[in-house]
Here is the input.
Amino acid sequence: QEKTNVKESVLCKKCICNLDTSLLDCSEKLGKWLSDEEWEILTNGDFTFKTIKLEQNNLTSISILPKYSVENLYLAYNQIADIADAAFQNLTEMTTLDLSHNKLTTKALRPDVFKGPYTVDNFKALQQMKSLNLGNNEIHSLDPDLFEHIPNLEELILCSNTFQVIDKLTETAISGLTSLKTLDISYLEIEDLPETVLHGPRDLDDLIASGNLFRQLPKALKYAKNLERLVLDENPIQNLEGDNVFPPMGSLRYLRMSYMPHLFKIGNGALSELQNLTELILSDNKVLNEIDGLALSKNITGGIYLDYPPLKHLYLKNCNLTTLPTNLLVRWDNLNTLDLRYNPWSCDSSNDHLINILIQQIYKKNALLAKDVQCATPIELKDLTVLKVSNEHLAAGSSGSLIWVGLLVILLIAIPTILGAYVMKRRGCFGLFSRNEHGASRALYNRTSFNEDFHI
Here is the structure.
């Protein structure tokens, strides 16, 4: 059968066909599923699209789709509430499936929905499936066997569903995903995580748990041994101290805890078990007013010196900080980014390190980040930039140093001169300039008498 010219087809006149990026985008173009004729154009076409977008088309269900070698299928922003068993069995090359922003419920998400192609005695798994987005639906629980036909999932997005609690069924489903690398459980209205939910996916790299109701750090974090990136934004945690500190997480490199409405203190040892952290974001925590100087440090060797994570980026923008402890880090100069903007900084002796050293380092590496670091106190310096205060302080210090250097030079020259003159006088060396020793003595005496008359 002769292949259809896809580029010149009626389908590509209706939708966007980009052969360079291998994209077929029919979003907002159809109002329904592709017709049989349009599927025929694809399945018998002279070009295979690797990515198909059918978003915002008021689709309400998914039936068994025709055989096609699509890799990325986007069905978001529809009204999908029902999916047929084995709906995707003919899409054996599919790696990404986006079902977000639909009306899917727990009942609609049966394990058989993801059954692969039928073999002699069973259904094969969809081995290529790596990413599944179920965000923004109406799911409150997951079938414990939901992912049995897609065992190689590496990314699972569950955000903005009304779970309220991760029940035992959901825990079983998630913990069985041994290849999982990214898990998004943000905005699920949950107060905690089951302690062993992260024990199964040992290769988990990214955990996004923003916008939940955590008041304490989840105990489940202790099982996330290989986690590299963690996001805990918008949780009502009040402080990190005492028992509420991070467990040993030796692989964690990125931590973000921003927009925390009640977080006011990062205490002693709060982050000390994160000894490979390179990026820490604590911005937009409006009541955060204290970071302990020992929040990051740990005594690993047992000696007299403390160990610190190799931080490269530290963001403390838009908090309520007035001072920054000098001993929070040792090598402040190793930071590539230090964002201290929009805090009510104290510009007095309590902040000498910030004023005299850190602000200059910030300015040299990124002048924009120094622009809005402003003084709040004392009142006479209010709204002045810390950089301006620093520059004036350094200029004053430089002038004072020049004065002292000048005085030192004068003293170094004057003292030997006076001592030399005194020695020469004692030895009578001034007589070298006169042939008559007696005359010289009388002349010296006369000068002395003159000086005495003058002082009187």
User: Anything to note?
Assistant: Confidence is low (pLDDT under 50) at residues 398-409, 428-456. The chain has seven helices and 21 strands. Residues 140 and 162 are 5 Å apart (CA to CA).
